[in-house]
Write a structure and sequence with these properties.
Helix content: 25-40%
Radius of gyration: 22 Å
Bound molecules: flavin mononucleotide
Number of strands: 13
Shape: globular
Strand content: 5-15%
Distance between the termini: 48 Å
Length: 455
């Protein structure tokens, strides 16, 4: 069979355009209504998407007056969506900086059980400076320290998920044996940041462990992804930078001893689709006209760690000197580079830059016919830029429906996308191997240590 595309639906607000929430075509439901999210997940499942995804921030944004900055806590929302769907993968964002590994290992293992093997975790280290103020107020943890902590966090959660053999639970009412203690082990982790005895208080997940997704694109972020991620989200404003990222990450994965095809790379794509290109562009203008440049200015400041852009006029061409050096930014470093590359290449005015970022915050934004969008997807997919896409409809659910009804059938006719699900678990949709279990390792002597002996 031809190499197959992977499609993830990134659910955000009433669409990814920052003014989508005001548009008449956007959903009438409140953003705290779970039916809005279950309905979107069901639509995506009917269209055979691999997965849906929720991002997350751990603080209320400063622009709540003009933009919806509230959403349901993603892991909780996934539990509800799991009950309303049966095949689609479920990805929630959670931070390694502001929780304990035992908490997250347990929550994602629970979602994997609840969904019968469809859970995935988007691992973030949390770039938002204001999040630190909600967790102890000791100031933002530096970029390097966040990743150092994240590395140890991953060692702990992986060991916890691997602390049960797949055959540990016997549940034999007649003999009175519930679980085989020799198939459960403590982890006895003592590191720089975490001390965790283990084992996890939950049997092994249906997928062995949840699928791991990552979205850091800085050098440190790329190495982290190459070591841990099954799928990688990334933001690009041009095919060339996506190709550079793709080649680099596959190379890094190989250097970590992994098979490059087992790390899927999914750039963001926000397409406004209509029967003619002119109509798609008109729709884009219509949504752009609803957005406020001052909201965009505040968001830009957040991206650059709170840098003050208030003195910049809206209509003079920008130069790189108008921005702080990305190396000094402790927030989302890779996105600041994406923005600076655009400034160097196109010399937009601040108004133009904010207009572009309003579309999908630095991801690839385009407007066209279904055929044009399918061509673009095929071109990136066969041209070494993507294994699939993180689809970010500018308006929800309207533009998801157009994508599903008009673009997906073209991709199917070209043999690039599934016409039915062949498995039930996300690992199967993504074509990923099952993680090895320490209990299947011939060197493992089954010895029970520490806290596990007392269970
Ligand atoms: C598609 C996508 C989604 C992301 N979602 C989140 C998110 O929900 N929460 C968050 O804190 N960071 C999110 N990020 C940011 C990255 O995970 C990462 O923390 C950030 O880019 C900083 O790391 P870097 O400097 O290595 O790029 C996302 C990035 C991308 C490309």
């Amino acid at each position: 069979m031809k190499r197959q595309l992977h499609l993830n639906l990134f659910i955000h607000s009433r669409g990814h355009h920052e003014a989508a929430w005001r548009h008449p075509a956007a959903s009438p439901l409140p953003l705290t209504d779970i039916r809005y999210y279950t309905d979107l997940a069901q639509r995506a499942e009917a269209a055979l998407f691999d997965s849906i995804f929720f991002a997350d921030q751990l603080a209320l944004g400063g622009d709540v007056a003009q933009a919806p900055r509230t959403w349901l806590e993603p892991i909780t929302a996934l539990a509800a969506i799991a009950m309303a769907t049966s095949r689609i993968g479920l990805i929630a964002t959670a931070s390694t900086t502001y929780t304990e590994p035992f908490n997250l290992a347990r929550q994602f293992a629970s979602i994997d059980h609840i969904s019968n093997g469809r859970a995935a975790w988007n691992i973030v280290t949390s770039w938002l400076a204001s999040a630190a103020e909600n967790y102890g107020g000791a100031g933002q943890v530096s970029h390097a320290d966040r990743y150092a902590r994240g590395e140890e966090f991953m060692a702990v959660v992986k060991a916890l998920w691997d602390s049960w053999g797949a055959d540990a639970v016997v549940d034999n009412r007649a003999t009175g044996l519930y679980a085989r203690p020799e198939r459960i082990r403590s982890i006895d982790h003592r590191g720089e940041f975490y001390t965790v005895a283990g084992p996890l208080n939950l049997p092994r997940c249906p997928q062995g462990r949840p699928v791991l997704v990552q979205a850091g694109s800085s050098d440190t972020g790329r190495r982290f992804a190459a070591r841990h991620a099954d799928a990688v989200f990334t933001a690009h404003m041009a095919k060339e930078t996506a190709q550079e990222f793709y080649a680099d990450l596959k190379r890094l994965a190989g250097a970590e001893g992994r098979r490059p095809e087992q790390v899927l790379i999914l750039p963001g794509l926000s397409p406004m689709i209509a029967a003619s290109e002119a109509e798609a562009q008109r729709l884009t203008r219509e949504v752009n006209d609803l957005s406020d440049p001052e909201v965009g200015r505040k968001r830009l400041s957040g991206r650059f760690g709170g840098h003050d852009f208030s003195y910049l006029p809206l209509d003079r061409p920008l130069s790189p000197e108008d921005f702080p050096d990305p190396d000094t930014v402790e927030a989302a470093r890779s996105r600041t580079e994406v923005i600076l590359n655009l400034v160097k290449r196109d010399k937009p005015t601040l108004r133009q830059l904010l207009g572009y970022l309003a579309g999908a915050r630095g991801h690839f934004v385009t407007a066209g016919t279904p055929e044009q969008i399918a061509d673009l997807i095929e071109d990136w997919f066969t041209g070494g830029a993507a294994d699939g896409f993180n689809i970010m409809p500018p308006l929800l659910p309207a533009q998801l429906d157009v994508f599903s009804a008009e673009v997906i059938p073209i991709l199917q006719r070209r043999g690039l996308f599934r016409t039915e699900y062949s498995g039930t678990m996300l690992r199967e949709h993504y074509g990923l191997p099952w993680p090895a279990s320490v209990f299947d390792d011939p060197a493992f002597n089954g010895e029970l240590k520490g806290a596990a002996a007392g269970i």
